[in-house]
Structure formats: structure tokens, C-alpha cells
Amino acid sequence: MFLGVDTGGTFTDFVLFDGASVRFHKELSTPENPSLAIERGIQNLGLNARDLHLIHGSTVATNAILERKGVKTLFITNKGLEDLLIIGRQTRPELYSLTPDERVPWIHSDDCMGLSGRINADGVEIEPTNRHEFAALANIIEKGDYKAVAVCQLFSFLNNSHEKEIASGIPDGPFVSLSHEVVAEYREYERGATTFLNAYVGPLVQRYLKHLEHTLAPKHLFVMHSSGGVMAAEAAGCQAVKLALSGPAGGLVAAQAIGRQLGESKLITFDMGGTSTDVSLIRGEAAKTTESEIAGIPIALPMLDIHTIGAGGGSLAWIDEAGLPQVGPESAGASPGPVCYGLGGQTPAVTDANLVLGRIPPTAKLAGSMLLDREAALVAFEKYGETLGLGPESAAEAVIRIAEEHMAGALRVVSVQRGHNPDDFALLCFGGAGGLHACALADALGMRRVVVPLASGAFSALGMLAGRQQGDYSRSKPIAALDGDAMPQLQHLFGELEQEAAAEMEGLTLQFERRVDMRYMGQGFQLTVPMHGEISAMIEGFTAAHLKAYGHSLDRPVEIVTARLTAFVERPELSFPNLSASEKETKPCDFSTIYGVGEVPQYLRSELRPGCDIAGPALVIEETSTLWISAGWRMNATTFGHLLLERCHGF
Length: 651
Prior knowledge:
Blueprint lengths: L1 E6 L3 E7 L4 E7 L5 H11 L8 E5 L2 H7 L6 E6 L5 H4 L24 E4 L2 E2 L5 E3 L4 H12 L4 E4 L9 H8 L6 E4 H4 L5 H29 L3 E5 L5 E3 H6 L7 H17 L3 E7 L4 E7 L1 E2 L1 E2 L2 E3 L2 E3 L3 E2 L2 E3 L5 E5 L5 E7 L18 H7 L8 E2 L3 E2 L2 H15 L3 H23 L11 E5 L7 H7 L4 E4 L6 H8 L3 E11 L5 H19 L6 E10 L6 E4 L4 H16 L7 E11 L21 E5 L3 E7 L8 E3 L2 E4 L4 E4 L3 E5 L5 E5 L4
Parallel strand pairs: 1-4, 4-11, 5-6, 5-9, 9-10, 13-25, 25-26, 32-34
Antiparallel strand pairs: 1-2, 2-3, 7-8, 11-12, 13-14, 14-15, 14-20, 16-19, 17-18, 21-22, 23-24, 26-37, 27-30, 28-29, 28-30, 31-32, 33-36, 34-35, 36-37
Helix pairs in contact: 2-7, 9-14, 10-11, 10-12, 11-12
Keywords: Hydrolase
GO biological process, one term: glutathione metabolic process
Pfam families: Hydant_A_N, Hydantoinase_A
């Protein structure tokens, strides 16, 4: 049996697949120890962990970075570069702001150390390391009580001998992260920052995964990484920074699978959970980037291109110094949670607003078992609305509108701001709260189609089951594309990467995808294109990609900067049995009163059959989420269990 588990800030989601049927489950997350929610969920599902192939989306690395709660880390580089992580690129988020926020460095200068030795830009040693410094290094690590050490030397991606020598001088105990093992690419700051983050969170991730393996002892434990594949837990512990987008990546992997199933190649994904909202754009495949950042520090690793904002069901409503209503980014989380959870929350949240407005029925049980306190939410909005001169329902409606505008803005970032017309795409909504705002967001962006997939409330956990086992490898080496030996050099480089992949993923039958980063000579940025055919074909592909991205091409020589290899194990497409058709008329199970709308029918998703046609306004209820179909929209169920919404003509 396969169990996908996605640990979110508010809920931990479970999807169990036994080869014939699928079950969904939710538990309140336990942020202080995420494994507790997983243990409780497995127990409540009546499972024996030893029978499970467990695929996990973890937030341990993400939370440690966002909250700056990693371990004490020593950063080692070349003499003269000790302030690399502190200086960074000297960029400012707001160029013309007269009152910029103070930038808090990720590391103190006392925790940075420069050592002798230098490799030049050709990978040739021009100054050897000084082994006499290694004794002082060991003393500093011991006296400073460092739990991790990050090593980033100049041009280690061309010649890693100095980093290996330094590693041999580090005493046993601390977690050691070497830049040529984390990201063997040019750009010292990005490489150094990524290596530092890997060391900063590595011991925490290792400890968590070892605890999970020891406590649960599943047949296999895999972890979803940020580029949309899964990796063995042991490898994940050594490459912790790759888990920065572990959970959201699962949703995007599942979205691609659903798109192929429905024949929808163009999707904008909208994943709204309890704490945050993640959005992305898919054109056949989800876009990837190697220029991400989290909490202001870059991560130079292949990652699915996901835009995240602090807007979720737990986002708190508050009033700023100017007396204007705001929503988020602070969240109520799992504890105490929104007011309606009855766990001590006092400040109203988006979930409370949906409950007050009737979009979440008062009789609903969150995660299938948690009763909600509508009266408590109503009282909270009475207090909140008094400051604004609004009644509780009007105040709740205002909170929803503000939250939806934040989310619509995020959707515009990945579509309109990148030159895409949202009307060419279908909006794929998931997450526990996604269905409550699907129609409003589609209306805001002028979109006509919405997909609410099977298991929408636990969709990222479903993606854990759809991910293939894969690893990403790269190596920077400038190669002039028109040199006669460019292709042999490139083939040699990929040969080395394939050997590295085979050693790391030992015992697996691997397939490979090859890509290269290319740029015009003199440029400071590059585009990634597939490697195929001759060099001339790759140059043509790069020229076309440059024209599409920037609207022009240049009459300059082209160079190859970085070789990129994805090694993966091919696996069959995850599929579930089709729903059986029924001639019975789909009837409401109940009726709900929606503020500003009136009485609307309420349907159970488990009783919807292929072909059923429901016109809004209406509610569709399931254990893991709620779908609000507003006026002007019609819903049709597919044989796969997905719900398709279309805007009616005339609206």
C-alpha cells in the first residue's frame, strides 16, 4: 500500500492507495513535532506503518528557514571572501523606498572563516591550502559549538580538491555541506547561500527523518523534493535544502497528471491551504527555475516555479495603523487556529468568515470529525466589525473580498505579468480552502473554466504518490558553442554527471533528461534548453527561446554555461478506477443559507455521478474540502471524479 502524506501549517493530509481504491484523511498538524500528526493519522486510518510505502512532503526545512531556527553554522570560504553571505549582491527589494526595512544578515561575521588556497577560473590551483590552519579550524568548531559547517571555495565546480582537503580537516560531529556536492555551478553568492542553507537545516531534517523511520519503520520512506520528484530519506537528509518546496511541489505534480488525464495542457494552479496559497502556471509541463529564493536568501537549485503568498484559511483579519482592514500574512495555524476551531483563537480568520457567511455549513465537520463553532466566529466578527462600522456578516464579507484580491494578485503574477492571457487557461483549484474561492478568482481574471480535482482537499498528498523517483545534477563549465570540440566536451561533462547519478541512485534502472544553460557571450543570465541533435540545433533552440522570452535575438556568439542532468526511474501513470455511472437524479442532501444569496442546495461529492449537471449557487461538501459554486457557473462531474465548472453565457 502507498501512503502520501503532506504536512501543512494547519493540516496534515493523507492519501492511501491500495491499487484498487483511494482513501483521504486529514489531521490537525503538530508544528512542534510534525511526526505526531503522521503517527496519529496512520493510527486513525487503521494502518500498520510497516506495510506502507510512505511518500512524504515535509515542511521541516521550510519552517526552519522561514523562522530562522536552523542550527549554529560555520561558513568557510577563501581568505578575503568572509563577508560573501553578508554583502550578497547589494540589491534592494524597493529601489526608491526612503524607509527600507532593515536587512538582517543570515550569518554573523564571527561565524565566517577564510582559509588559504586558491583555484583560478580555469580550475588550476594557484595557491595550495595551508594544512596548519586546519588545527585552528578544528579548535574554532569545538569552542564555537558549531553543529554544521558549510564550505564554499572559489571555482570548486571546476576543481573540488580544496573543498575535499578542508572537509578532511573538519572533526567528526558537525554536519558538513560542501558546495561542489550541493550545487556545482558558477556564481559564488548563490552557491554559497545554497550551501549554507543546506548546512543550516541539514541536522534538523536528518534528525526528523531518522526519527520518522525509527518510530514508524515503513517498508520504504521517500521524500518529495522541490523539483517535483521523490528521493530516498537517507539522500534527503544529506540534501536538506532540496526540500524547501517539498509540500507545494506535490500539488503541482498531481496537477500535471490531472491535466494529462483531462486533456488540459494549459492550467493555472491555485492551492489554498490553512496558512498560505501557492500558485503556478502549467503549459504541458510545470515551469522550473534555478533562481528561487526563500525568506530573502537565494537557492540555486532546480525547483518548480511556485509563487507563494501568506493567504490561507487561517489568515487573520486585522486593522492597520491607518484604520484600514487587512488580511494576513499572519496565520492562526493549527494551534490555536481560527476562532471556530474552539481551541482558544480570538482573532477572526478567513475560515471564520466563510463559516459566518454560510459557505461552510454550520453542520460541517472539518477533516471529517472537527465540529465548528459558528457562534464564536460570529461574536469575533461582531467585535472586528464594530471598528469599521460594519455588522458581523458584512465584516466577514469584506475579509473574504480582501483575501480574494490578494489571491487574484498572485494569480496575475504567474499569468498576466508573464505575458499569458488567463482566459487561455483553466483554473485548477485545490487545497482545503481552494474550492471556496474558485469561482470568484476565475471571475476576477476573466477565466471561463475551473477544475476541482479528485481529492482536492488533500491534493498535494495525492501528488506524493504521482511523483517519480529522480535526482537533479549539474556542472558549470563555460564552452564556446562554435568551438569544434564543444560537443565532445559536453558529452564528457554529461558522462561524469551520469556516473554521479548512478553512484547516488545505486541499484536503480535510470533514464536521463539532458538540458543546457546557454547565453550570448557577455550576458549575465542564461536560458535552459533541451540538449538534442547537433550544437547548431541547440543554438537555434536557444535563439528561439531568447526571442520568445525577451522579444529579440542578438548577433553574438553563444556559449554553454551549465550542463543539467535529470536522472529518473520511469513509473506507470498513477490512475484510479472510473466512477460508475448512474441514472438516478442527483439530489441535494440538505440546504444552506448563504449571506446575500439566500437558501441554496447542498450536495455530497461522494454521491455525484458522471454527467450530473448542477447550476450555481450551490455547495458541494466532502470531508476534506467545500466547493462554493456561485451564480453564473455550472458544474459537471467527470468519469474520473473531477468536477468541471464553466461560466454560463451571459455572465
